[in-house]
Amino acid sequence: MPPITHASDALWNRACSAADASTSGRNQNADEEALAAAFLSDETSASEAAPLVYHGAVKLAFCGGVSGALAKTCTAPLARLTILYQVRALTAIGPPGCSTAPGLVAALRHVVATEGVRSLWKGNMVTILHRIPYSATNFWAYEATKQHLQQRVANETARAWVAGAVAGALACTAVYDQGALGRLRYADVVRALYAEGGAAAFYRGIGAEYAKVLPGMAIAFTAYETLKRLTGAGVAA
């Protein structure tokens, strides 16, 4: 009987040791899995936070640029007519002896009949090349400035006013020369301007442009934020 008892005890001890090892292995695996999950969670959180800094700015600039180009393209026919009215190029199509320009519909019909429908968008590509960077800079600068002032300026109206003015100034400075060149569209004039005053020549009159754009953008964005707040448009349903 004693040998049998010793053999049973030995088998029991080996079984207990194997069970403890198995439990220990499972616990170790669980700890490793938990650690890996925590690491991946931290890594995922960091990767999800990064786009708020970079991708968010890119998306704002993209949306602003595309919306500006779309708006300019949709209103290009009216812009073309505005120029024709300003240079009095439409007075000749009126009745003899009449110096008054025709109405809007008559002017559109005349341009389409004499030059074709595509002529209503003549020069629109140059305008878009100016509008895309302008609108992209404008919208991005507004949102970035407003976010920067979030903890510094308590009044929402003041934040919108300052952010709108900053956005207008940055956008105007970034593409002011492109607007001038788009209106000129002559390489010889560009060369003459540069030879006369260098790069600064393309920014002549920017002070007057600031005087127009800064308060205009400040008022526009302030009105936008105020109406959004009053109508509840910025509140998620």
Automatic annotation (TrEMBL):
A biological process from GO: transmembrane transport
Which subcellular locations apply to this protein?
Membrane
Query: Would the keyword Metal-binding be found if you checked this record's keyword annotation?
Result: no
Q: What is its main location?
A: membrane
Q: Which domain of life is it from?
A: Eukaryota
The membrane topology of this protein is: Multi-pass membrane protein
What keywords sit in the KW lines? Membrane, Repeat, Transmembrane, Transport
Q: Which Pfam families match?
A: Mito_carr
Task: Give yes or no: UniProt keyword Repeat.
Answer: yes
GO cellular component terms listed in the entry, alphabetical order: membrane
Solcar repeat residue intervals: 55-148, 155-230
Q: Which family does it belong to?
A: Belongs to the mitochondrial carrier (TC 2.A.29) family.
Spell out the protein name for this chain: Mitochondrial substrate carrier family protein P
